# Entry
Amino acid sequence: MGLNYYQIKKNILRARKLVIKGTNTAGSGHPGGSFSMAEILGCLFKNHLTFDPANPRWEDRDRLVLSKGHAAPGLFSNMAVAGYFPESEIETLRKFGSKLQGHPDLKCPGVEFCGGSLGTGLSYSIGIALAAKINSQDHHVFTIIGDGESDEGQVWEAAMTAAKYKVDNLTAFLDRNFIQQDSYTERVMPLDEKLEGDDISEMWKDASRWKTGDKWRSFGWNVIEIAGHRVEQIDAAIKKAKATKGVPTMIISRTVKGKSVEHMEDNPQWHGKAPDSDVVPIINLELDSQFMIAPSIIAGDMTNLENEIRKCVSGRANFIHLDVMDGKFVPNKTFDDNKIKELRSLTSIPFDTHLMIDEPLKHVKNYIDAGSDIITVHAEVTDESSFGDIHDILKQNQVSVGLAINPDTELPRWSYKFLDSLDQLIVMSVVPGKSGQKYIEETHEKMTRLNSILQQHNFSGYIEADGGINLENIGSVFTDGARVFVGGGAIIGQPDVKTAIKDFQDEVLRSRRLSLLEKANQLGGVDLVNKWIGLHVIGEKQEQLKKIAREIGYL
Amino acid sequence: MNDPIMTDMRSTYSKSLIELGKKISDVVVLGADTTDSLKTSGFGKEFPDRFFNVGIAEANLVTVSAGLAVSGKIPFASTYAIFLPGRAVDQIRNNVAYPSPPGKNGLNVKLVTSHGGLSVGPDGGSHQTIEDIAIMRVIPNFRVFIPADTVAVSKLVPLMAEKYGPFYMRMARSKTPLVHSESQDFQVGKGITLRDGSDCTIAACGITVRMALEAAELLQHEGISCRVLDIFSIKPIDDEILEKAARETGCIVTTEEHNIVGGMGSAVAESVSESYPVPIKRIGAQDMFGESARDNEVPLLFEKHGITSINMAKQVKELRNKKL
# Structure
């Protein structure tokens, strides 16, 4: 079974936009903490929680307790996406008569816990877990606590109680975003170590300063520490937690408050503040412009792909692009599903398997079983019928569905009917099967044609640019609409993969900032440009944005 | 009056819980290290899987109970009164009283405390809760009881289990005099007329009910006919019985081992002032803290605050002169 990678991504995007809509309409609320836990909730709702929106009080449902109740918009948005109520209802958030109260409330069917008073959700979850044990029920309790609320003594009373009563049917997440209302947690009340300087990222970078895991371990918990915006790590941690018997599990998830919106990220001001209406369209565009870097390991040492994978993982690639070539569809041969199976055991990072093979329908099951999370097949070797079958098999197995087109292939008409559920479209910008080729410039025009077709047919997936992507062209490829960038020689061929990935990201970021500035200018001229830039108060973002704005003549 | 028969509320509570546990499998009991003192550990021996001792962690005690309740259990959570409303009022409000499943008001948690009021004695003022009734009755959805004796305890425990919703019941530490007959009926929001009278009323609760009866006896010798009510259900309070008492006897003395501010006396005054205002005198802790007193000195502590049958009789006589 795959990870449902893109499905989760898409849900998270919808949920984040609803958080913005809800808090903006309400004029107050807590977007920062809603965004730091967005991936956790997205993964839970799609892959792990057993629930039925039509029967929210179903006895055997899993329970989700949001102890950090101020992140209510995050919970409500995910519930809307999951079908508990129409997404439009998010506009009633915090209003008189709404079931969407300022903090989660049993008034809203599906909500399990009235949040608001911090530090109590874990105790409550223990009560639910104990009741399930008494009744010999096997549903699971998932609880999300905040790092700020970990100041509360009751959290540690609960920690002891859960260990004493061995509530292994309880899994908690610590949304470790390092920020509470007043300031950084390590300044208000350190959970790890006291923050001496102003740069919160020093806590992130230096694992030797992390003490929170030790605290929970010493209280008798099974502790798993993850990067809390990585869906695959969340997913793997939940699986491990559920398989651990005799002790409760705490998944310490290092997250970024306000994640995905630059001016909110790591900014204590966005703990509890709503975005202004004039900025909302810019934020939504920014959310739509999240991007991923996917190194292609065949550009590396084919005799030691294991090592290439390790370099990509430690280099913080979003996922790994695996080019499967069969020597028939393309002249070259690389590896097949057996190799992928071997590599799968090394890491939980998503595998983006690009099948450059003949008769993909015949082989697709093998690649699912090998552990692919995204599988892309070529339009040149499929038709409506075979692609339909592939599409269905992949979806059934929680594998994201991709379709690829070669440089001289137009998107076939038969594929239009699949576009609204297609997760990934690979637009090849080199002829597949040969390495070291240059980006084909005509691809830019092709992207313009494609975008209009994709829009007409409600494509909500991600465009992956594959072939000859480098630091010079990646910005314009982003502007074309690509959101995933396969890096071959420009990443894997570099002495320091981590830096190469970072350079890719920085270039895309620059291009994205440019497009957001254009949006601001288009919507509100120089005033909005200045206002939006002024929101970026953390780190060097403001100066960097001003520089771009000056370059394009906005300032 | 005959010498009172003294019985122990905590033993009765323990016995009642075990009986209840046998009848209702959803009943669970929680404690916070005071389970031998509260005698709830007996339930734990009988039903080890339905008994949880969370240690000296009252906030946790309340919230774990809330989680059990939202899952269909009927938790009885107990410790000393000073540590429950006194310490965990946030959890009581936000985790028990406030969360309301569809069609329900609050969660089905029963908070039962011992060591309420001044009669705690030797442990001193730090342990003598004189605020819990005020705290608990101001929280929506909670119903608040102070039983006068073990008969009341034995009747109120199953009553709380039978009625959905949050309850608070405060018991006394020391043995208490029996005032009710075994056949006495107890209902939520219904006071009990223990002695009829036409010249005045004493509304009492807890261990002061016996004192009120003694005061009425004293007054009878002086030709004053004094009605005595056991207002064990402080919330909801019996507006009807109080209005009737006001109309028929013209004045009301209240008595309790709780601060006169916000306690049962205040509840009575609120009720009567809206239905049929008559002069009222509140007897209780005089808005000052208690202090240590050995068991045989507790009457001295009560006397300091005027909580004696003699003072009750005296207040009745003074109040009669103020009748409208």
Observations:
- The radius of gyration of chain A is 23 Å.
- Chain A touches chain B at residues 105-107, 109, 112-114, 116-117, 119-120, 123-132, 134-135, 153-154, 157-158, 160-161, 165 (CB under 8 Å).
- Chain A has three domains: 5-273, 290-494, 497-555.
- The longest helix of chain A spans residues 497-534.
